[in-house]
Amino acid sequence: MKVITMESSVFTALTEQIAEIAAHVRAVSGERKEKSADRLLTTREAAHLLNVSTRTLQRMRSEHRIGYVVLRGKCRYRQSEIDRLLADCTVMEDAATPTEMKRNHTLRTGGGKPKGRRT
Questions:
Q1: Do the beta carbons of residue 56 and residue 44 sit within 8 Å?
Q2: Helix-turn-helix domain location, by residue (predicted)?
Q3: Can you spell out the DSSP letters for 8-36?
Q4: How many CB atoms lie within 10 A of CB 49?
Q5: Mean pLDDT across the stretch 12-31?
Q6: How far is the first Cα of the chain from the last one, in angstroms, to the nearest whole number?
Q7: Any alpha helices (H) in the chain, and if so which ranges?
Q8: What is the C-alpha separation between 42 and 75, in angstroms, rounded?
Q9: Beta carbons of 77 and 66 less than 8 angstroms apart
């Protein structure tokens, strides 16, 4: 066994570099986990999560309100797309700015589109 000696400043710099490399590896592996966690849901699963019928989900697709993937002729929905839709449709209780208040009003009143008309 060989003994290697070095100055404490060099040792400190070396351990800092190792810590940076370890943090980078953790960040990259975390990104992969997040991407793999974005699973594909069937129409029935997505409708259940959104608490809507499968027909309503089909309308949302037709209106381009929700993104979807077609695999072998069947529609699938990414979990992240379901989460995005829920976040976009969430009314904020503590709306402080006029923009947030307007957004809440638009959500509560159905988006300002007249019902029964197609655009």
A1: no
A2: 40-89
A3: HHHHHHHHHHHHHHHHHHHHHHHHHHHHH
A4: 16
A5: 86
A6: 79
A7: 8-36, 43-50, 54-62, 79-88, 98-108
A8: 7
A9: yes
- The DSSP symbol for 71 reads E
Identify the pLDDT of residue 119.
42
- pTM: predicted TM-score of the whole model, two decimal places: 0.55
Q: Under a CB-based contact definition with an 8 Å cutoff, are residues 103 and 95 in contact?
A: yes
Highest-confidence segment of 23-27, 66-70, 85-89, 98-102: 66-70
Place of tokens 């929905």: 77
Average pLDDT over residues 80-102: 82
Rounded CA separation 107/87 (Å): 12
Q: Round to whole Å and give the CA distance between 16 and 81.
A: 39
Question: Per-residue pLDDT tens for 23-74?
Answer: 888 888 776 666 556 889 999 999 999 999 999 999 999 999 999 999 999 9
Q: In what order do the strands lie in the sheet with 69-71?
A: 40-41, 74-78, 69-71
